[in-house]
Amino acid sequence: MSEKLILTIALLGGTGKIGPGLAMRWANAGYRVIIGSRQKEKAERVAAELNESLGIDSITGMQNEQAAEHADICVLTVNHEAHEESVRSLKDAVQGKIVVDTTARVDYKDPHPPSAPSAARMAQDALGPDVRVVAAFQTIPAHVLKKEVGKPLSMSVLVCADDVEAAEEVVKLARGADLPAYFTGDLDNAIVAEGLTALIMAMNSHYGSKAGSLQVTGIESK
Predict the structure, then answer these.
(1) pTM (2 decimals)?
(2) Are 32 and 9 in contact (CB under 8 A)?
(3) Rounded CA gap, 61 and 222, in Å?
(4) Cα separation of 46 and 33, whole Å?
(5) Roughly how many angstroms between the first and final C-alpha of the chain, as a whole number?
(6) 200 with 213: CB under 8 angstroms?
(7) C-alpha span between 2 and 68 (Å, rounded)
(8) Chain center to CA of 219
(9) DSSP string of 99-120?
(10) Which residues sit opposite 35 in a β-bridge?
(11) Three-state DSSP class for 109?
(12) Average pLDDT, consecutive stretches of 10 residues, N- to C-terminus, the chain (222 residues)
């Protein structure tokens, strides 16, 4: 797989919770980053704010479909309630690409593990075989990503995909954001990551935290 494939990353629905933090980390690492939104003006505003925060000008804002078309890898960061509609609307724009699905279908007010199939499996079925869907970042707290950009975070990214090569590309992408990452099986396993997100949310609520996460031990992230 060519190096070009990881040069431009589109955060689709990237104006929400997790998108801006990932955008900052990837842009700081030298990737070209596009913030996508249903509203172009909103995407441009958030991109400008992130550029100002980092002292750069490499982050751009576009409408979601346009962002997807210009990207090498697309990262879907929409609210779980908008997942199905977003996948359907982006189907044509993401053909031939890797799509990273960060969705965990968990209500933060009443966190419980969702039922199978995983959100990423549903996205793969909807987008078709010419799109390689990878599930990742479900267990990473958005609150932490904007802190100490450029420094490693001690929280692990669980990466699920039917296509192992695509999963390894996303593992590299996570490391580019200073996050250790591990391949954890196919898209059906991603339902476990969604369930773990519910546990993390419950712990954060109980202990009054916004930074709870998971860390893999005993395995070297190569």
Answers:
(1) 0.94
(2) yes
(3) 33
(4) 12
(5) 18
(6) yes
(7) 19
(8) 23
(9) EEE------TTS--PPPSSPHH
(10) 11, 61
(11) coil
(12) 63 96 96 97 98 96 98 96 96 98 94 96 98 98 92 96 98 96 98 97 94 93 68
